[in-house]
From TrEMBL, chains A, B:
Annotated DNA-binding residue span(s): 53-72
Sorted UniProt keywords: DNA-binding, Transcription, Transcription regulation
PANTHER family according to UniProt: HTH-TYPE TRANSCRIPTIONAL REGULATOR BETI (PTHR30055:SF234), HTH-TYPE TRANSCRIPTIONAL REGULATOR RUTR (PTHR30055)
MF term (GO), any: transcription cis-regulatory region binding
Domain of life according to the entry: Bacteria
Domain HTH tetR-type: 31-90
Descriptive protein name: Transcriptional regulator, TetR family
Pfam families: TetR_C_43 (PF21597), TetR_N (PF00440)
Source organism of the structure: Ferrithrix thermotolerans DSM 19514
UniProt cross-references to InterPro entries, sorted A to Z: DNA-bd_HTH_TetR-type_CS (IPR023772), Homeodomain-like_sf (IPR009057), HTH-type_TetR-like_transc_reg (IPR050109), HTH_TetR (IPR001647), Tet_transcr_reg_TetR-rel_C_sf (IPR036271), TetR_SbtR-like_C (IPR049445)
Length: 239, 239
DNA sequence: TCTATGTGGAGAACTTATCTCCGCTTTATA
DNA sequence: TATAAAGCGGAGATAAGTTCTCCACATAGA
């Protein structure tokens, strides 16, 4: 359901003037604040997306903005530090899916986990689907998904599990679509993307004799109106 | 493919002080400018969404901002004037779809045309999917879609054309999903939503023996990267 | 105790919206 | 053609929001 990535970022400071490799540990209270900032950023970026301000992140972490900027030279730097491991996890997922013997199961494994990651983390979704954020290092990582993803698709098509007209690039769009679906409903029913994932997946088979069992109930009209009310409304107050 | 709604908005000015019904025509040049503003707003809202500024609309229309504000008291008023007829068109579409004898064809007719409208008009999509814009009158109009839409779904389910687990509220989410898909690709290949609509629709049948023929080719990897590059990037310059 | 290290958060600097105001221009009419 | 009423453009007032800096004060740790 949810995924956990242990982020282990350097808590040491490079001494710029001295000869190579010399590092110095942060003071204990400083180190704790740094971790609080990272946890806060992780949580708020995941919930509200990358437009979350560093003021909000600082406040949510219980520290001042200055403390954030002392540890991360800019917002961009914080984003990069935070998401590198998450993007790497996507690369790993693609390669790992290729090892599953049954090609349909491999395809589903990849797609389901990819969407699960992106649905539970709005910041990650924005990072993956756009080129606005993320420097060269993240871009290079993103490019590493292409080859295994193509092979996952070709393999499943070759075996007759996946409809012939499907292309690897469709994965990106389907990911975006289900991200939207989840963003729309998740405040009321977390994980609603699985409902629509079932529909889409049933549409990707060459043929089928029945419907897959659907995950999650549908929203009522009242709930839907509530979802509309909060759709894309700017995030108000992080506790 | 594309749809046309003739917008016929009052080009007269109410004389506030005088006894009821007295109206006065705009000067010819003023009338022309007013229409230019409406056309410009229609075009830019459709292409870039409701966050388009009135400065941009004015510039694109070849008039000053002052001229826009002289005719429409606020941005909200312009949006309301512009979209009332479009929302009414959705209500009409729902009722008209119920008149189609075959309930599956009625369902597809409704969904396809609804998504077509919303895909070709980002502003309309934002208006329909959120409650941020649009006053009471538009809200009341939107509510009129609910009853016929529910009947469209129930009818198709009753006849065994549509899978049992589908609900009327799913229409809203599917609309949002395909809107996203189109937003993602439309700069490169307009109408790409039809490709993903085929996948989704094939997933909504209780069962099927083959795949529907797919509309539109997939994007190449290069095109997809280009799409990522422009995804959600702020609109730059309206010619 | 003492100092290098760290802190908070006001506010500088910048951006981006909406909407107003006023000197000048144009239309319509007598 | 002369005149007044209507209309025009767009600079800029106003407000909100965001990134990032700075410095008087606090604290860990030798």
């Amino acid at each position: 359901m949810s995924y956990i990535v242990v982020v282990e970022l350097s808590s040491t400071v490079e001494e710029p003037g001295e000869e190579g490799g010399s590092v110095r540990h942060l003071r204990r209270d400083a180190e704790m604040n740094r971790e609080r900032v990272l946890a806060s950023a992780r949580e708020l970026f995941a919930q509200y997306g990358l437009q979350t301000t560093l003021d909000e992140i600082a406040h949510h972490a219980g520290v001042g903005v200055g403390t954030v900027y002392r540890r991360f030279s800019s917002k961009e730097a914080l984003v990069e530090a935070l998401f590198e491991q998450r993007v790497q996890a996507i690369v790993d997922l693609a390669n790992e899916s290729l090892l599953i013997a049954n090609s349909w199961e491999g395809f589903v494994h990849f797609l389901e986990n990819l969407i699960s990651m992106e649905a539970s983390d709005r910041g990650l979704r924005e990072l993956v689907l756009s080129n606005d954020y993320g420097g060269e290092r993240l871009q290079a990582l993103k490019d590493q998904v292409e080859a295994p993803a193509s092979e996952i698709v070709e393999r499943a098509k070759r075996d007759g599990y996946l409809r012939e007209d499907f292309a690897a690039t469709d994965i990106v769009v389907i990911t975006a679509m289900l991200g939207t679906a989840d963003e729309y409903c998740s405040q009321l029913v977390p994980g609603m993307w699985r409902r629509y994932f079932t529909y889409v997946l049933d549409g990707l088979r060459p043929s089928r004799t029945s419907s897959s069992e659907i995950a999650y109930r549908s929203l009522s009209m009242e709930e839907m109106k509530c979802a509309m009310g909060s759709w894309r409304r700017r995030f108000q107050r992080a506790t």
